[in-house]
Amino acid sequence: MNLSNKSSVDVEKDAINDQAYFSNETVNSFSWSDVTVTVKDRRTKQPLRILSDVCGFLKAGEMVALMGPSGSGKTTLLNVLAHRAATLGASVEGSTYVNGAQSNLKDFRKLSSFVEQEDALVGSLTVRETLGFAARLALPGSVTKSERIARINSLLGAFGLQKQAHTLIGTPIRKGLSGGQKRRVSVASQLITSPKILFLDEPTSGLDSAASYEVMNFVRNTAKKYKILVIASIHQPSTTTFELFDQLLLLSHGKTAYNGPTTGIRDYFAGIGYEMPTYINPAEYIIQLVNTDFAQDHTEAAARLNVLHTTWARSQQAANLQARLDQSRQSASPLALDHTHHSANPYLLPLTLMHRSFIKSYRDIVAYGLRIAMYICLAIMMGTIWLRLDPIQSNITAITNAIFFGGAFMSFMAVAYIPAYLEDLSLYTKERLNGLYGPTAFLLANFFIGIPYLFLITILFSVVAYWLGNFRPSAEAFWTWVMWLFLDLVAAESLVVLLSSLIPIFVVALAATAFANGLWMCVNGFMVEPQTLNVFWRYVFHYIDYQAYVFRGMMVNEFGKRKYACEVVEGACRCMYKSALEDQCMIEGTAVLERYGYGNGNVGKYVGYMLVIIFGYRLFGWVVLYLRKH
C-alpha cells in the first residue's frame, strides 16, 4: 500500500496508533533554578540584570506561558532554557534540570526542539515535502521509509493539514498557506523527531485571535496526548488562548511576579489586593498590572511593581515551588541516551540538502530563473553593442573593453544571488540550532547545487555574446572562454557566500559585495596595467583578485593566437603595435599582451590560482558559519 496516498480514514487511524512514535516516556519533568542573566549597560558601563533568580518547574504534558511586557526578559529566559545564547555578551548563571538532573548540551538537543518566532520555511516546498525533509534531516537511519511516511501522515492528521498536504508553503509571488497554517507546519516539522521538550518563541505573533487559538489548541492537544513539555513565550493572548496553558510565569523587569497555575491567578492577585474584574481578559489585566512603561505616575507604578516582586518572593506559592525543585533534585534520575541511534546519517545530509535546494531552485524563479533571464539580456546587450568586430587594429581597444565587460560585469551581477542565499542561511541557522546539521553539510550542498546553474548561465551567455562579438572563431577558443567565465561566476558566487555569511543583512551584504567587486575591477589590470599599478594595490590586492586572472585568461585566449590588420594611410601601413608581422601590415596578437605584461602560456597555473581563490572564499565562509554558533 502506498502510504503517501492514504485516505483520510487511514490517516486518522495512524494518528490514533502513533503513540510509539511521539509519546514521551523519557522526560518526566523540566526545571530551572536561580536563572540570572547580566549584561554591561552600554551607556553607564555598569552591570545590568536582564533576569534575576528566576525559577520554574514543569511536568510532562504541561504547557507553561512565559509572559510579561516588552523588555521583561521572557525571550531571554526562553533562550537560556533552550540552551541558546541569551544575548550578545551576556553572563548567565543558574541551572536547568531534566528529571532533576543536569544534562549536557548534546543530550538536551536530542530531547528538545525550538520553533522560531518567524516561520523559517522553504516557500517553494509543499507541506508534505517540508515534513519529509524535516524527517530526513533529523531521523536516524534506523527509521525506515515507511515509518517515516507514517510519522508524516500522523502529523498531518494531528494538525489538521491533510487537505493542505500538497499545497505550497508560499512565496512572495506564489500564494500558499495562511499564517495559522504556516505556524502549524512549523510546529509539526519540529515534532517529527518526537521531541520531549518543545520551545515556542511567540507562536501567535502576527496571527489574529482565531488563528492564535487554532495553533495553540493543536499544540495543547499534542502535548497532552504525547506527554510533551511545552514552554512558550507569548505576548498577550486572548482569553480562550490563555486558558489553554497549565502554568504561567509572569515576568517584569527580569523578576518573577507570579509563577503557578493559570487557574490560580484570580485568587492570588485578589489575595494581595488586586481584585481582577469579572469581565476582563486575565492576560490583559496582569500585563497592565506589571507594565510600568506607560504609567502616568512612574513612581507609583515602580512602587507597585516592587510590591508585586517582593510579595511573590515571600509567598507560600514561591516556597512550594522551591520545595518541588529541591525534591526533584533529590530524586534525580540521570538520562541515558544512546547517541548512536538518534541522529541522521551525516554522510547523507548534504545529499538531502541538495535535493531540497534543487526543488527550490526550479520552483522558485527568484533563485535562478530571474538571474538566467538577466544574464541572457546582458549577453544580448553586449553582443549587439560589440557587434561583429573585425580583426583590425582599430577594434583592438573595443575588443579589450568587451573582454573586461564580459568578465567584470558577469561577476558583479552575482549580487542578485544575495536574497536567495540569505533565505537559505536563515533556514540553516534555525536547523543548526536544533542540532540537525552543521556548516559543512550546508556549504557543500550550497556549492554543488549551484554548479549546474552557473554552468548553464555561462553557456547561454557565451553562445550569444561570444559569437555576436566575433571573438576568435574556433571551438577551442570558445570553450576556453566558457571555462574562464564559469570560474569567474563560481568565484563571484563564493564571494557572495562569504560576505553574506559574515554580514547576514541584505542591504549591508549588498553594499559590501558591490564594493568588493568595484575594488576587483579597479585592480584587475584593465584600468591600469599590472606593471604600472601602484605597489600597494598590486601586491596587496591584484594578486588575490580573481577578476585579474579571468581578464588575463580571456585576453590570452583572444590575442594569443590571432592577427589584426594594420591601418593603411595614403598607401603606407601604420601599425599601433610593433610585432614580427609588421612587414605584412599585420599586428601579432601577442604584441597586445606584451603591453599588459601577459605571457602566452601557463594557463594551467592561472586556473589553479582561481581554484585556490574559490576554495579560500568557501573555506573562510565555513569558518564564519562555524564560529557563529548562535
From TrEMBL:
<feature type="transmembrane region" description="Helical">
    <location>
        <begin position="481"/>
        <end position="499"/>
    </location>
</feature>
<feature type="transmembrane region" description="Helical">
    <location>
        <begin position="506"/>
        <end position="527"/>
    </location>
</feature>
<dbReference type="InterPro" id="IPR013525">
    <property type="entry name" value="ABC2_TM"/>
</dbReference>
<keyword id="KW-0472">Membrane</keyword>
<comment type="similarity">
    <text>Belongs to the ABC transporter superfamily. ABCG family. Eye pigment precursor importer (TC 3.A.1.204) subfamily.</text>
</comment>
<dbReference type="Pfam" id="PF01061">
    <property type="entry name" value="ABC2_membrane"/>
</dbReference>
<feature type="transmembrane region" description="Helical">
    <location>
        <begin position="399"/>
        <end position="422"/>
    </location>
</feature>
<protein>
    <submittedName>
        <fullName>ATP-binding cassette transporter-like protein</fullName>
    </submittedName>
</protein>
<keyword id="KW-0813">Transport</keyword>
<dbReference type="Pfam" id="PF00005">
    <property type="entry name" value="ABC_tran"/>
</dbReference>
<feature type="transmembrane region" description="Helical">
    <location>
        <begin position="606"/>
        <end position="627"/>
    </location>
</feature>
<feature type="domain" description="ABC transporter">
    <location>
        <begin position="30"/>
        <end position="278"/>
    </location>
</feature>
<dbReference type="GO" id="GO:0016020">
    <property type="term" value="C:membrane"/>
</dbReference>
<dbReference type="Pfam" id="PF19055">
    <property type="entry name" value="ABC2_membrane_7"/>
</dbReference>
<feature type="transmembrane region" description="Helical">
    <location>
        <begin position="365"/>
        <end position="387"/>
    </location>
</feature>
<dbReference type="InterPro" id="IPR027417">
    <property type="entry name" value="P-loop_NTPase"/>
</dbReference>
<dbReference type="InterPro" id="IPR043926">
    <property type="entry name" value="ABCG_dom"/>
</dbReference>
<dbReference type="InterPro" id="IPR003439">
    <property type="entry name" value="ABC_transporter-like_ATP-bd"/>
</dbReference>
<keyword id="KW-0067">ATP-binding</keyword>
<dbReference type="GO" id="GO:0016887">
    <property type="term" value="F:ATP hydrolysis activity"/>
</dbReference>
<feature type="transmembrane region" description="Helical">
    <location>
        <begin position="443"/>
        <end position="469"/>
    </location>
</feature>
<dbReference type="InterPro" id="IPR003593">
    <property type="entry name" value="AAA+_ATPase"/>
</dbReference>
<keyword id="KW-1133">Transmembrane helix</keyword>
<dbReference type="GO" id="GO:0140359">
    <property type="term" value="F:ABC-type transporter activity"/>
</dbReference>
<keyword id="KW-0812">Transmembrane</keyword>
<keyword id="KW-0547">Nucleotide-binding</keyword>
<dbReference type="GO" id="GO:0005524">
    <property type="term" value="F:ATP binding"/>
</dbReference>
<dbReference type="InterPro" id="IPR017871">
    <property type="entry name" value="ABC_transporter-like_CS"/>
</dbReference>
<dbReference type="InterPro" id="IPR052215">
    <property type="entry name" value="Plant_ABCG"/>
</dbReference>
